[in-house]
Amino acid sequence: MDDSSLSSTVDVDKGFAIAFVVLLFLFLIVMIFRCVKLVKNPYETTFTTTESSLS
């Protein structure tokens, strides 16, 4: 009886879906900030990436 009441209140698929949406939203926010930084100063961003790969 306790197992059936627990399984009816906890929906694993819904939890995975919510976690996926939250992680996707966080990834989108990070990508927006990176793109804004690139648009504001593209030469500094490309210079630092090439400099770090040469080291």
Automatic annotation (TrEMBL):
Keywords recorded for this protein, A-Z: Membrane, Transmembrane, Transmembrane helix
Top-level taxon of the source organism: Eukaryota
Keyword check for Iron-sulfur: no
Membrane topology of this protein: Single-pass membrane protein
UniProt cross-references to Pfam families, sorted A to Z: Cortexin
InterPro entries noted in UniProt: Cortexin
Membrane-crossing segments per the record: 15-33
GO cellular component: membrane
Localisation per UniProt entry: Membrane
Protein name: Cortexin domain containing 2
